[in-house]
Write a structure and sequence with these properties.
Largest sheet: 5 strands, parallel
CATH class of the largest domain: Alpha Beta
CATH architecture of the largest domain: 3-Layer(bba) Sandwich
CATH topology of the largest domain: FAD/NAD(P)-binding domain
Bound molecules: flavin-adenine dinucleotide
Helix content: 10-25%
Number of domains: 3
């Protein structure tokens, strides 16, 4: 058997560390080994897009170094250790030439940032921010600079726009959509958030994409697809995230949009599990904290001997855009129905009803966000 080998968790993001914490609540002794490509610091990733308003350095965002995590949770962490392959039949993970035996393996290696292939002489000034190391590089690059162009008006683009504007920067946002948060909010609610951000001074360029970024003095000039140009110092690319699947696929695991797992978080291979940004759980990739916490609680039970399905409940998403806060409970992608919109000034309440008139989702902006709790009680959770 493989039982003397540790449970190996790949990744020390919120998924990896939350799972380790949940396992320790149930079993003080089972050996846990965490492998991570990064420095292994424990941090709350959502804080990356509030760091300028709150004036947080990368050091201040770190809640614990890997040594402290190892001590607190009595586990072993190997940092700067990138897994290069998985041999599921033999219960082995590869780190280059090294082979490590596991009893159970959990993949929690997160998502990649989508990178656009933009030409020009200024692309060294284009940054994407998906972890503490990215955040550090970005902050270092700012060094006295004041102007930022953000590509993308999704959740992360809008949050950085709000954060950097309030943090004292001059912010342009370029996005191909008609308004803000197009894949998350119905149009009226997206417009409400865009208006709130515009009111604090964020400049939106909707219906446009950046086609080239060239060096200009100490900054850059971005050319848009209509030929217009924007001079700026630094560019943030926030055009999306994709679950990391390549290594899983090469190792013979079933992948789709994410690493395919069932509701017990099991992959297509025995004793191999996945959760968090890399996982497609029962057909859904959910790149948020609440779902991964629910998965960590269920998986900890499964790993300690009680097979358990994840159950999510109702998980509204709140945008960190204080210029116009928004909260959304998206209807399931396959649900049929329509949005009913109510407005009060620039604040919007949008309810998604199915054909029977029962509430399947909602989106609230501004003052209407106060109705979040009451409405959440009326909506079925993701089952
Ligand atoms: P990650 O945190 O990406 O961790 C992946 C880990 O795997 C890392 O330790 C990495 O080093 C390691 N790794 C990768 N490849 C390998 C390898 N081959 N070998 C070994 N280790 C490897 N969600 C919300 O719910 N609310 C919010 O307000 C919110 N705000 C956000 C703001 C920003 C700016 C961003 C980027 C995301 C935000 N999210 C938010 C999403 C949320 O933060 C993520 O869903 C969550 O942090 C994902 O955690 P994870 O552990 O699955 O992945």
């Amino acid at each position: 058997t493989h039982d003397s080998a540790p449970i190996v968790i790949i990744g020390t993001g919120l998924s990896g560390y939350s799972l380790a914490r949940e396992v320790r609540k149930l079993d003080k002794n089972v050996p846990l080994l965490l492998l991570t490509a990064d420095d292994g610091h424990s941090y709350s990733k959502p804080m990356l897009s509030t760091g300028f308003t709150k004036e947080k350095t990368p050091e201040q965002l770190s809640m614990a170094d890997p040594g402290k995590m190892a001590e607190q949770l009595s586990l072993e962490v190997r940092t700067f250790t990138a897994v290069t392959g998985i041999d599921a039949p033999r219960h082995i993970v590869r780190i280059g030439d090294e082979e490590l035996k596991y009893s159970k393996l959990v993949i929690a290696w997160g998502a990649n940032i989508v990178k656009l292939d933009i030409p020009g002489s200024g692309t060294d000034k284009v940054f994407a921010i998906n972890d503490l190391a990215d955040y550090r590089l970005f902050r270092e690059s700012l060094n006295e600079k004041k102007r930022i162009l953000i590509m993308g008006a999704g959740l992360i683009g809008c949050e950085f726009a709000n954060d950097l504007k309030i943090g004292g920067y001059d912010v342009d946002v370029v996005a191909p959509s008609d308004t803000a948060l197009p894949s998350l909010l119905p149009t009226a609610a997206g417009e409400s958030v865009a208006e709130g951000l515009a009111n604090v001074g964020v400049r939106f360029h909707f219906g446009r994409v950046v086609t080239q970024v060239d060096a200009l003095g100490k900054g850059v000039v971005a050319t848009l697809d209509d030929g217009s140009t924007i001079e700026t110092d630094v560019v943030i690319s926030a055009v999306g995230l994709k679950p990391r699947t390549a290594l899983a696929k090469n190792s013979g695991l079933q992948v789709n949009n994410g690493i395919v797992v069932n509701r017990t978080l099991e992959t297509s291979e025995m004793d191999v599990f996945a959760l968090g940004d890399c996982a497609e759980v029962d057909g859904q990739v959910l790149l948020y904290v609440l779902p991964l916490m629910a998965c960590a609680r269920a998986l900890a039970k499964t790993l300690t001997g009680t097979p358990t399905d994840v159950s999510y409940g109702v998980m509204p998403i709140m945008t960190k855009t204080p210029a116009c806060p928004a909260v959304v409970l998206p209807p399931r992608p396959d649900s049929e129905g329509q949005w009913l919109i109510e407005r009060n000034g620039s604040h919007v309440k949008a309810l998604f009803n199915d054909h029977n008139g029962s509430l399947q989702g909602f989106a609230l902006t501004g003052d209407f966000t106060a109705e979040k709790q009451a409405l959440s009680k009326l909506v079925p959770g993701i089952h």
